Amino acid sequence: MQAWPYPAWIAHRGAGTLAPENTLAAFRLGASHGYRMFECDVKLSSDGVPFLLHDDTLARTTSGHGLPTAAVAGKHTWQRLSQLDAGGWHSAAYAGEPLPTMEGIARFCIANGYFLNLEIKSTIGTERHTGEVVAQHAARLWRAQAVPPLLTSFEIPALEGALAAQPALPRGLLIHALKDLSWAQWLAHATRLRCRAIVCNHELWNAETVAHAKAAGFRLLSYTVNEEQEAQRLIALGTDGVITDRVDQFHPHN
């Protein structure tokens, strides 16, 4: 199995729920708690700029709820999106915090020696294209770095696009539930996509699934782990990393 360069503790969306998710403020807060790796969500504006946002729409985490086209984020240009408040929904202390670009987050992480997990979150109908563009930008931004970001997605076409565009970048398949495919079928997809990691809903990991994934050569990550007992269970199973909201509870040096 190839060497795995990433830390075992990963801050979800920057700092979990302690700061407005997927903002530079959240990354800074997560870093203040000792985290050296961050997970975030990346999608494309209508003019092709990769930026951080989890939801399809702008309503929950920005001031863009009144925009046309049902406030679907990917329907708007970056110029328009860059004017939104992505912090005020969380608390007054973060009012005015902007949506960050992927490039801005990359520069922050590279300057500070942090690691990154970029989850590709596509606007419906743009999955493969989004994977291609995110991978191309990642390869450009991290071209001088020893450790590139880990590209992950629930969307198989997005990972296919990332593989086609930049096959050397590490990829991970996200799995939420087994209702659509068997465990063997998921592993087959990850193998075909030349993934380095399987990133699971933490409840899916048990002795059997861990053994099968390790036998297939994958690294094993879990989301979103917020309970001490569950974190210890996953560590005991021999998984390689946990993604958590509780940057104030779990100390990454442990």
What are the main properties of this structure?
single chain, 254 residues, alpha/beta, TIM Barrel, 8 helices
**End-to-end distance, in Å?**
24 Å
Low-confidence stretches: none
Sum up the overall morphology in one term: globular
Rg, nearest Å: 17 Å
* CATH fold call: TIM Barrel
The CATH homology group name: Phosphatidylinositol (PI) phosphodiesterase
Strand segment count: 9
Helices and strands, in N-to-C order? EHEEHHEHEHEHEHEHE
Largest sheet: 8 strands, parallel, barrel
What strand order characterises the main sheet? 1-2-4-5-6-7-8-9
> Could you say which structural class the secondary elements and strand pairing correspond to?
alpha/beta
Helicity, as a percent range: 25-40%
The CATH level-2 architecture is identified as Alpha-Beta Barrel
Number of helices: 8
How many domains is the backbone divided into?
A: 1
Given this structure, which CATH class is correct? Alpha Beta
Mean pLDDT equals 96
Note the beta-strand portion: 15-25%
Task: Give a brief outline of the structure.
By secondary structure, this protein is of the alpha/beta class. It has helices at 24-32, 78-81, 102-112, 127-141, 156-165, 183-192, 207-215, 228-237; strands spanning 9-12, 37-44, 50-52, 115-120, 150-153, 171-175, 197-201, 219-223, 241-244. It has one domain (9-55, 102-244): Phosphatidylinositol (PI) phosphodiesterase (TIM Barrel, Alpha-Beta Barrel).
